[in-house]
Amino acid sequence: MTTPANQSQGVSVQVRALRRSYSGQAVLNGLDFQVAAGEIFVIMGPSGSGKSVLLKHIIGLEPPDGGEILVNGESIQSPGVMAKYRMALVFQSGALLSSLTVGENVGLYLSEHRLKPPLEIARIVSEKLAAVGLKGTEEKLPNELSGGMKKRVAIARALVIEPQLILYDEPTSELDPLSAVVIGEEILTLNRRIGVTSLVVTHDRDLAFGVAQRIAVIDEGQIIAIGTPAEVKRNPHPVIQKFLQADFHPENNHP
User: Fold this and answer.
1) In a domain, 23, yes or no
2) What is the pTM of this model?
């Protein structure tokens, strides 16, 4: 069932002057941006630019050195705020437990916290796997799945909590081009169907321009541009243009 646009279950996110350093090295250097409820917002940039560290701060895994993050206008550093909102992180590796079946991985949060009886958990797991095109895979083990399927299982696991915000950390890394397209389609489908806010961190240019409503480009811990995909492509900033135009030309290596 599709969630009407004016009834989005997504939440807004605002990052203000966010700073984080490790061993004296600034990784996040005063980031400022806003994500609207129900938006697909992509943070794009080269490896090592601070993208994954930013996600850890948004979901509360690490405290900032300065600045703040607000969800629906409330600082996540205030007592009780994080518990009010349902947020899920889809890890770059998928982070599935190899000793558990697909169904057990997807339903792990519900079973570990005893939030639902076993039959209800099984129904929810089946529903979420079907939502990502993996109906009937409950009894498979992670090592029986392709890389793309593992990523979709990780998304199904995130859906179990009925998230208002999904954070994707390099969702197409280590995937072949066809699997990467499937993951991009899943991100779009979930946004349209349940209105979840999606914050996607990636250096995959095809994914970024394929799913984003807006893109922020990060470099050396700072946002250097924010705009629609078309606006970012036209941005003359040399770092952006170098990143967008980087291609491998083997013929250049031959005399």
Assistant:
1) yes
2) 0.85
